[in-house]
Design a protein that fits this description.
By secondary structure, the chain is mostly helical. It folds into two domains: 78 residues, no CATH class; 245 residues, no CATH class. The protein is 77% helix and 0% strand. The protein has 14 helices and no strands.
Length: 346
């Protein structure tokens, strides 16, 4: 039978019949299918060739990674005679930074407290209702052109978004410092400066709050069909106020935080939270009021002639530079005072 080429296929069928069943996802099945196809049909399945050739290399790389990841800790725990202090990896390997551990700690603290993360549903409903109101505004029935009305609404919308950011910062950011409670002594005893701790808190919360303000401003401007300078002004001003408010919340939280509060929600009713809210609202009114005059002339020239006037543009640049400087100096001064008070606990 082996000599007769015409009966060779029957021999292959015979071997296939007496072979044990194998999974089609295993390398032996790939090799058998590849060999059978080549011997019977003189065709090569290049996908199977690639799988057969690359699987050993992939398994080798995965094994090396698993050894480097888990072998040292397991071997150290099993060999107590030398205390598990031997190192089998490179000394310059990546180690997570302090800010990453603080971010992980803050995330776990937030998710473990049902009174904290459950309010995300309320915030989501607030966003939906807030944006829905822009779709039902009777802009077309106003006695003035709709372009003027939409730009005025977009300008006032910056203040509304900033007020919402202030209220959320008073609820989540301000009590996050004192929310450490009695466990703050661990952070105070760690080789971590108080300024670095506050800086990490700032950057942890700046991302979600910036996205929140950006979402409200961009979608509301899109619903109002706002274009031109007002779109850029609302984007810049909302982010400036958001960063400023977050920094103020961190500073006030460090300066007036009550580490003996029962929970984070109880700390919101303190005098520090009230001072923060009044300060944040005053800053919002002052900054938006100061930028209203150059923005009014800039928008009017844009709507009338489609060009940007140099004088209102210069005034707007001066307003932006002054606002940035004031935000940086006030936030730095307040956070330094808060860091000084936190240093007293160490």
């Amino acid at each position: 039978m082996l000599v007769d080429p015409e009966r060779f296929s029957q021999f292959i069928d015979y071997l296939a019949a007496i072979s044990r069943p194998t999974s089609s996802t295993m390398p032996p099945a790939w090799a058998a299918t590849l060999l059978t196809g080549y011997l019977m049909d003189r065709q090569i399945d290049w996908l199977l060739v690639a799988l057969v050739l690359t699987t050993p290399a992939a398994l080798y790389i995965f094994g090396e990674w698993a050894m480097e990841r888990w072998f040292f800790s397991g071997f150290s725990k099993s060999q107590e005679s030398f205390g598990g202090h031997r190192r089998f990896s490179r000394t310059d390997a990546y180690r997570p930074g302090v800010w990453r551990w603080l971010c992980i700690k803050e995330s776990k603290t937030f998710l473990r407290d049902s009174t904290e993360w459950s309010q995300l549903f309320m915030i989501g409903a607030l966003i939906v209702v807030y944006l829905y109101n822009f779709t039902v505004l009777p802009v077309d029935r106003a006695p003035v052109p709709s372009e003027y009305i939409t730009n005025i609404i977009a300008f006032l919308n910056i203040g509304l978004v900033a007020f919402m950011v202030s209220s959320l910062a008073a609820r989540f950011i301000y009590p996050s410092i004192a929310g450490e409670g009695a466990a703050f002594y661990i952070i105070a005893a760690a080789p971590l400066a108080a300024r670095s701790f506050l800086r990490a808190k700032f950057f942890i919360y700046i991302v979600p709050f910036s996205l929140f303000a950006l979402l409200l401003v961009v979608i509301s401007d899109h619903l109002l069909q706002v274009r031109g300078p007002m779109w850029w002004f609302s984007l810049f001003c909302s982010q400036l106020l958001t960063w400023w408010i977050v920094a103020l919340a961190v500073g006030f939280g460090a300066l007036y935080g009550d580490f003996n509060a029962e929970n984070r929600a109880a700390a919101v009713g303190g005098v520090g939270a009230i001072l923060f809210l009044f300060t944040a609202m005053a800053i919002v009114v002052i900054i938006i009021g100061a930028g209203s005059w150059p923005m009014y002339h800039l928008t009017r020239s844009w709507l009338h002639s489609g060009v940007i006037g140099l004088r209102p543009l210069a005034g707007l640049i001066a307003w932006a530079a002054t606002s940035l400087l004031a935000a940086w100096l006030s936030a730095l001064w307040l956070c330094n005072r808060g860091a000084g008070k936190l240093s007293d606990y160490s």
